[in-house]
Design goal:
It is a single chain. The protein is α+β, with helices and mostly antiparallel strands. The protein is about 45% helix and about 15% strand. It contains eleven helices and eight strands. The strands form three sheets. The protein has a three-stranded mixed sheet with strand order 3-5-4. α8 (about 195-205) packs across α10 (about 225-235). The two termini are about 40 Å apart.
Length: about 260
């Protein structure tokens, strides 16, 4: 629902504050749009008071906070890890083939890229032409409700579009870096904990998110076989995550891996 979506918010409390401060006119407009889209499932009667009853809006916001705490928060690190890996994948796709590579792979069943038009199959059956007029489009990887895209046309500062997080994909070389610099910046405490080479591999993945195993080996100054072995151990320990595309693995640190690096640093 429009007034509940705040993709630009940096954390849940900021999003909740924006919902609490939502103007009554915006609430009424969003509810009218929602009510008019699906006549098979009429909106609950109580929602008709959202635009005039501030206490009801605050109560709804408290419920959203409760749901987030008990349904989302326990899995937040895993969601963040998958999201970071997906974004690394999409950056590589965009760099490799531009929109022609990026857009068709976001959600093939519900998004069709026919330049210059992106056709969407929406869950509510909405059919309309959206003109960005230079505002751009914010792409948001979504862990929930991934069957159909959600399009926020009136969102500020730009419209947004959700797509399902990938668990698996990619392939493009990143710029090389000097092995000596990587070796010199790995903290001693990290090498003591993980061992010298494995610490370098984790440090390299963090500084080159989205590296393939071959790229990882080159950045760390080790063989591909060694890079693959250490990446597997790090992934099993929950410090990194991997997406696959054909025969290529794409490595990214998880929040736990990042936290470990920050702590040892």
């Amino acid at each position: 629902m429009g007034f509940l979506a705040h993709p630009a918010a940096e954390h849940i409390e900021e999003a909740l504050d924006q919902i609490r401060a939502m103007p009554a006119a915006r609430l009424r407009k969003d509810m009218e749009v929602w009510a008019g889209r699906d006549h098979q499932r009429p909106v609950p009667t109580w929602t008709q008071s959202l635009g005039s009853d501030k206490e009801l809006l605050l109560e709804l916001t408290d419920v959203a906070a409760h749901v987030h705490q008990h349904v989302i928060t326990p899995y937040q690190q895993r969601i963040d890890a998958l999201s970071a890996a997906d974004q690394a994948l999409r950056r590589r796709q965009a760099a490799h083939g531009g929109l022609h590579t990026l857009l068709p792979g976001l959600n093939p069943r519900h998004m069709k890229w026919k330049p210059p038009v992106l056709e969407l199959t929406m869950a509510d059956g909405a059919d309309d032409d959206i003109h960005l007029s230079g505002r751009g489009l914010l792409l948001i990887p979504s862990f929930f409700g991934v069957a159909s895209p959600v399009l926020g046309v009136s969102a500020e500062p730009q419209p947004y579009l959700t797509y399902p997080i990938r668990r698996d994909d990619t392939d493009l070389a990143l710029p090389p870096t000097e092995t000596a610099r990587v070796l010199s910046t790995v903290p001693d405490s990290l090498t003591t904990l993980l061992g010298h080479t494995r610490a370098i591999v984790l440090w390299t993945i963090a500084h080159h998110p989205g590296s393939s195993t071959t790229e990882l080996a080159r950045h760390a100054g080790i063989s591909p076989a060694s890079a693959s072995q250490h990446a597997t151990v790090l992934r099993a320990a929950g410090l990194t995550t991997t997406l696959r595309h054909h025969n290529t693995a794409l490595h990214t640190t998880t929040p736990l891996g990042t936290s470990l690096l920050n702590t040892t640093a």
